[in-house]
Amino acid sequence: MAGDGLCIYFCGSIRGGRGDADIYQQLITHLQSFGKVLTEHVGSKEVNEKGVIKEDAGMSDKEIHDRDIMWLEMSNVVVAEVTTTSLGVGYELGRAVAMKKKILCLFRPTPDKRLSAMIEGAKNCDNFEVVHYSDVYEGFTAISTFMKTL
Ligand SMILES: O=c1[nH]c(=O)n([C@H]2C[C@H](O)[C@@H](COP(=O)(O)O)O2)cc1CO
């Protein structure tokens, strides 16, 4: 089913920390070969002095929340990079589960990082997949494999 018309909601940390922004950008570029990534701004390199992403500057928190929930509702699939802990990403994933979306979470384990049990433990055979990966190329492979299951 991958191809025209697929709407993808990508989640990645913004206020939780931008250490993985480069990886988000590369994963988003890969995702764009499968469909439209509604949240392309999550990979943006342009963040202002207050930690606000350029594309969302000037929007109130309510406007950001309401737009993102609308995009989440519109999406066919949710892909989240969950290595950098983010309240917003956790919230989006909870809402996506309630909406019965197909979800892929990507996590890069390191000795000092353990994924929340509420994400790792949500894995099931149906619509919530968690993949551990070590570099962006493995992330691309995990995405391609997941897309084939749609
Ligand atoms: O400016 C924003 N724009 C935006 O789209 N988000 C959404 C998309 C991300 O997947 C997620 C990041 O949440 P947080 O900022 O708590 O790390 O929330 C979050 C913020 C800031 O919280």
Keywords:
binds 5-hydroxymethyluridine-2'-deoxy-5'-monophosphate; Nucleoside_deoxyribTrfase; DNPH1; Rossmann fold; five-stranded parallel β-sheet; 150 residues
Topology:
Elements: E1 7-11, H1 21-31, E2 36-37, H2 61-74, E3 77-81, H3 87-98, E4 102-107, H4 117-120, E5 128-132, H5 136-148
Helix pairs in contact: 1-5
Bound molecules: 5-hydroxymethyluridine-2'-deoxy-5'-monophosphate.
Characterise this structure.
This protein is α/β, with parallel strands linked by helices and 150 residues long. It has one domain: Rossmann fold (3-Layer(aba) Sandwich), CATH 3.40.50.450. The protein is built from five helices and five strands. Strands 2-1-3-4-5 form a five-stranded parallel beta sheet, sandwiched between helices. Helix 1 links the parallel strand 1 and strand 2. The longest helix has 14 residues, at 61-74. The chain is globular, with a radius of gyration of 14 Å. The mean pLDDT is 94. The structure holds 5-hydroxymethyluridine-2'-deoxy-5'-monophosphate. 5-hydroxymethyluridine-2'-deoxy-5'-monophosphate is lined by residues 11-16, 39, 42, 53, 56, 64, 68, 86-89, 92.
| CATH architectural category | 3-Layer(aba) Sandwich
How many domain units?
Answer: 1
Under CATH at level 1, the class stands as Alpha Beta
Which ranges are low-confidence, i.e. pLDDT below 50, for 5 or more consecutive residues?
none
Beta-strand segment tally: 5
Q: What fold name goes in the CATH topology slot?
A: Rossmann fold
Radius of gyration of CA atoms, rounded to a whole number: 14 Å
